[in-house]
Amino acid sequence: MAAQKGSAFLLKISDGAATPTYATVAGLRTTQMSINGETVVVTSKDSGGWRELLSGAGTRSVSVSAAGIFLGSAAEAQVRSRALDGTITDYQLSFDGGEKLQGQFLIQRLDYSGDFNGERNYTLTLESSGAVAPA
Length: 135
Hints:
Elements lengths: L9 E5 L7 E3 L3 E10 L22 E10 L4 H12 L3 E6 L5 E15 L5 E15 L1
Antiparallel strand pairs: 1-2, 1-5, 3-4, 4-7, 5-6, 6-7
């Protein structure tokens, strides 16, 4: 299996249409995705001293973190608008091998920073709401 390029890990935001079109959130230099799962422990005295977990139970979530340079793209404006509104929006994660994950996310955090005579940077954190599945 060949190594995959990090630059091909793209975050895309939906236009909200019935048949959505996804626009790449431009300027991202780093992206990170975490798949989280909470377990349900069903250990009993019959477990022989070993912990037992219930398969398929608990909650699962996906967190996405990204950071980059603000370019003023339309997709970045959509992200800022969704952050201010606190609305859940469809996003798509696209990977180097052509795989895609899609789901609804809430922007948990959006930060801007910049230095005098330097570029304007931003970081954002998304939290899934509902299922995240291959697209």
